Backbone:
């Protein structure tokens, strides 16, 4: 099945996570994505292990980190610091639809590979620049990393236990969200190009994305004038909406409305709570959070987690277990939806997590495993008109791999 972006060519000059995440999603949607990598070290994340994956007959080993964001791509290993390498990139850009990059502001201009220079060669080219702080402003020159941006962007201030240290998330979530926003920007520019015939430059900053993704917590602060405090696993605006200890473990309870709370109160043996002015509405429950949570907690401790989960599901009260990653992939629903996949790279089975998008019930997922460094250099260069001798000479000179 062809993807919605079949016929679109993406020049992916990004590395680490945010840019590659966008490139992988575009590949899952059917685009041809050519990943530009340094001839010697490749994408930084190839070395971010352990854990590693390698076939017994392969010298190269690759970190699991790299495998999470580079499915569906072709790898062209070329030295963009060399004049000949720059000429190759310009030739590719002249026939591309999209260029992704996450160099520091001005980093590509010194090579003549910045968006303005490439658009002069190809007016239809869409550029997407991903940086820590954007293309302008007092911080524009700074490098940006997810952990630092979670701190600066306010996310850490609302994560962690009230009396503990502020905490980052267990995944580089700002990078992932930035990759998603970048993809949205690229898709919008592609749609606009149908009408105008012209490309557009998309400027995406990790800090901007993190601030935008504060969602209700940002508005809590802007409406009240008070910065939200940390609530650990509890919700700042909804009660009860948090983790609770049971006799043998923990569960998460997410009561989203008063009808659900009424059913919970009945299950816990206190139907009168639903009529008590102190608990009858969510606003009242938020105001009496500590007292109500203490009462609920004492009851949950009397039975085992799975017993409670069965009772909660039977009454339509949203709740779930706190799964480990291994338990996630063993979950019947996750299995049914096919979220764990395996792609072949020669004889090697490369595990993957599926793209969550489906079109007419068909998953959007490239069947091409993350590439070895320079795996597709010969093919791509030959398509560009280079002979075998030309490619061999470039390889001897260290310009390509």
Residues:
């Amino acid at each position: 099945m062809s993807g919605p972006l079949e016929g679109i060519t993406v020049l992916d000059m990004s590395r680490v996570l945010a840019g590659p995440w966008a490139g992988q999603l575009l590949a899952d949607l059917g685009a041809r994505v050519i990943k530009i990598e340094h001839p010697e070290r490749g994408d930084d994340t190839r070395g971010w292990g352990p854990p590693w994956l390698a076939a017994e007959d392969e010298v190269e080993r690759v970190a699991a980190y790299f495998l999470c964001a580079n499915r569906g791509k072709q790898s062209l290993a070329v030295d963009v610091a060399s004049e000949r390498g720059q000429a190759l990139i310009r030739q590719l850009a002249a026939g591309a639809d999209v260029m992704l990059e996450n160099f520091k502001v001005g980093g590509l201009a010194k090579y003549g590979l910045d968006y303005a220079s490439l658009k002069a060669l190809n007016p239809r080219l869409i550029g997407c620049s991903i940086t820590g702080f954007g293309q302008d402003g007092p911080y524009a020159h700074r490098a940006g990393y997810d952990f630092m941006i979670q701190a600066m962007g306010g996310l850490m201030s609302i994560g962690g236990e009230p009396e503990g240290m502020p905490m980052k998330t267990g995944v580089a979530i700002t990078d992932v969200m930035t990759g998603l926003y970048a993809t949205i920007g690229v898709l919008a520019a592609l749609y606009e190009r149908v009408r105008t015939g012209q490309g557009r430059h998309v400027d995406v900053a990790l800090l901007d994305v993190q601030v935008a993704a504060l969602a209700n917590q940002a508005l809590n602060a802007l409406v009240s004038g008070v910065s939200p405090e940390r609530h650990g696993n509890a919700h700042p605006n909804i009660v009860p909406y948090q983790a609770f200890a049971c006799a043998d473990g923990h569960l998460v309870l997410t009561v989203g409305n008063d009808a659900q709370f009424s059913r919970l109160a009945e299950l816990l043996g206190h139907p009168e709570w639903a009529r008590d002015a102190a608990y009858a509405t969510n606003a009242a429950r938020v105001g009496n959070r500590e007292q109500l949570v203490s009462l609920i907690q004492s009851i949950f401790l009397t039975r085992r987690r799975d017993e409670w989960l069965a009772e909660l599901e039977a009454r339509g009260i949203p709740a779930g277990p706190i799964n480990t990653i291994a338990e996630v992939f063993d979950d019947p629903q996750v299995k049914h939806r096919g979220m764990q996949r395996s792609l072949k790279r020669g004889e090697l089975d490369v595990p993957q997590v599926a793209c969550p998008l489906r079109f007419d019930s068909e998953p959007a997922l490239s069947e091409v495993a993350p590439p070895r460094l320079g795996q597709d250099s010969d093919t791509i260069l030959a398509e560009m008109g280079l002979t075998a001798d030309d490619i061999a000479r470039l390889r001897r000179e260290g310009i390509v791999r």
User: Anything to note?
Assistant: The chain has two domains: 9-213+337-396, 241-322.
